[in-house]
Amino acid sequence: MIGKATRIDLLSMKTPQMRAFHLTWMAFFVSFFAWFACAPLMPVLKGEFGLTPNQIANINIAAVAVTILVRLVIGPMCDRFGPRKTYTALLAVGALPVLGVAMAQNYETFLFFRLLIGAVGASFVITQYHTSVMFAPNVVGTANAAAAGWGNAGGGVAQGLMPLLLGAVLFLGVDHTLGWRIALIVPGVLMLIMAAVYWRFTQDSPEGNFSDLRARGIAVSGGKGGGGWASFKSASANYRVWMLFITYGACFGVELFIHNVAATYYVDHFGLSLKSAGLAAASFGLLALFARALGGWLSDKAAQRRGLDARSMLLFVFILGEGLGLLWFAQASSVTLAIVAMLLFGLFTHMACGATYALVPFIDRKALGGVAGIIGAGGNVGAVAAGFLMKGLGDLHQTLTWLGITATLAAVCAIAVRFSAEHKAREQALYDSALGTQP
């Protein structure tokens, strides 16, 4: 029987593990691109709809709010139906509000579709679930972080590409009113294409699809009680899940917040053009191309040398670095210092995200979907909290300062994630077994 992959062959798509790896990060890339396609165009949309600062804050909150609920549900759905069916459905259904936002005629309809687009953010949980099922303990942290990081870069690409795409449409003679609508249709079409590709070329696990395995009486890894509520209930009873819920809110929540406000911040506070602000904001997202993978890889290496607890300590260091870097960014007085500080704290933020999900497969293997979903939702809870903080304070500098302080304090939660001797022994046995049975 085919088992989990013990190495990552980046140039190969021959095995089901590597097909899942590549297609899941591609699907996540397209999803993240669609999720944040509106953000760099907000200076244009602000004028189009006559948006007030309060309405813009509502839009930013809406963009990440519904993702909380969908992430909680989507993890157990992976246990129940398998990541292949779940991802295909999310891509196909999620494309509808992405296309719908291009048709919005006023603030209310724009806000409605922006809220629904947030469901696309749940794609992250499926990405992490699928790679967790496909790869062995010695490389699963790297696989999770690399797939998430490369997919996550879709947000950064959207920041830089959407203004250029709008510019290209306007260059063809289309006016602004129609131009931004045409530009926003592109990510919706890409999602529909990706849904078809994912359905055709992936499978749920190394052994096959969950439905086929269950029909043959084979127990499915990662599914407690067939998934669904049982998986969620088991995960929610584990204190480690809630510690990582907080740490992920501190790192991915901040990341989402920065994606939503960065371009507008550089335009309003430093007077940059829309294209320059988009490129500056894009640099933050593009760090995910390597920084998430680096966080996961370092977590795997630390665990090999010092055991499972070393993953938690490394996560603590990353989030502490993020918090301190964010405080520097909040006090930056020039655009140059702001960009340097953003890249520094962004590096720690992305590494912390990678290190968090390098821990996820080891929390509770029998409730993997519930664990991945709850922790993933924590990221969006953090983003929503940041949005309300911004709305309450009404000042981005103060908001960033308080986020930096909060992230620094949240680092303590990473230290609280500890494992019993029995748990460590069980994971070590799985690690030795995977390396002993794989070529």
UniProtKB/TrEMBL annotation:
Keyword annotations from UniProtKB, A to Z: Membrane, Nitrate assimilation, Transmembrane, Transmembrane helix
Membrane-spanning residues: 21-44, 56-74, 86-104, 110-129, 150-172, 178-199, 241-267, 279-298, 310-330, 336-360, 367-390, 402-421
Subcellular location: Membrane
Membrane topology of the entry: Multi-pass membrane protein
Domain of life: Bacteria
InterPro entries named among the record's database cross-references: MFS, MFS_dom, MFS_trans_sf, NO3_transporter
Residue ranges annotated for the Major facilitator superfamily (MFS) profile domain, each copy included: 20-425
PANTHER family: HIGH-AFFINITY NITRATE TRANSPORTER 2.3
Family to which this protein belongs: Belongs to the major facilitator superfamily. Nitrate/nitrite porter (TC 2.A.1.8) family.
Protein name: Nitrate/nitrite transporter NrtP
UniProt source species: Cupriavidus pampae
